[in-house]
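Protocol step 4 of 5: obtain the predicted structure for the target chain.
Materials: sequence only (see below). No template structures provided, no constraints applied. The aim of this step is simply to have a reference model before the mutagenesis design in step 5. Sequence pasted as it appears in the construct record:
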Amino acid sequence: MAAKVSKKRAIVVGCGGMGRAWMKNLQDNPRAELVGVVDVRSDAAQSAAKDFALPPESAFTSVAAAIKALKPDFVCDITIPAAHCPTTVAALKLGVPVLGEKPLANSMAEARMMVAAAAKSGATSMISQSRRYEVHHAAIREGIRKGVIGDITTLNCDFYIGAHFSRVGHLDFRDTMESPLILDMSIHHFDLARYFFAADPVSVYCHEFNPKGSWYQGDVAASAIFEMGNGAIFTYRGSWCADGRHTSWHGDWRIIGQRGTITYENDQAPRGERCKKGAKPGFCTEQEPVVLPVTTINGSGIAGSLNEFLDHLIKGKPVQCETKDNIKSLAMVFAAMKSARSGKREKVTW
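Step 4 output (structure tokens):
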């Protein structure tokens, strides 16, 4: 009979909608136990504790106080981006591992502080890039690794959704961000490019704008061209102010290799074609279907990232998105924003 694994005790910092999604994620996982909640608003923390059947004394307004009182095995940092750095650093200084929401930080300076804090403490700090935990994405990545379309030359991603986050009497934080699309959403697509491609960014040229009739204050649409480490090009077009004919939240992708192409649209199974071996020369080379590898994942979205983090805590397995690696995806965000403001091609540095 297999030995019973004790549950890993967790506290969630941030009691908004996403924080509550993580609370449910933890309570649904047989290897985790939600033991406390934290929010700068005491009423929000108390409300979340009540809704998730926790005693009132499990609700805090300070992450340090919660850690000292509850002694969790890890912290989930589900605060707004501006609070990621102080929240995560506070936990790491107390030696507690952190699983945080994207984006890693609100600036590259803060991101570097978080990477340094993790290195100094020896505690793992991981970002939940939830788009990595989808079976179609794993199949694309594995197919590229196996060279089913040869060396990759180009990745294109389109993302268009008319996202109305505000409600009557409630102003969403994205409505007032300077670059809501790039900073809060495009990080998913930039990170997916790195995930699919296994290459790091080198430079970017980006143009941001706010379309006519936009309900956002900041630039909520963008086009960007990234040069990747092996010379391939990643192009990105996106908008959160585009009603009608929405793309998938994952984006619609075209990945071109030296021998063929993979397309992935509307969350449907990715499809591909490649040059048929032994085909006769012609204006267009005869094609054959690409068969992508069959892959499995241990949970989709945030459930997948939680399972990966628990595998690390319990079994010592490595994680994909430690802060020291995820900072490269964040660097794409800030380099794109810098390019949009300078009007020039900018290097991506971290």
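Step 4 remarks: The longest strand covers residues 152-160. The first helix runs from residue 17 to 28.
Proceed to step 5.
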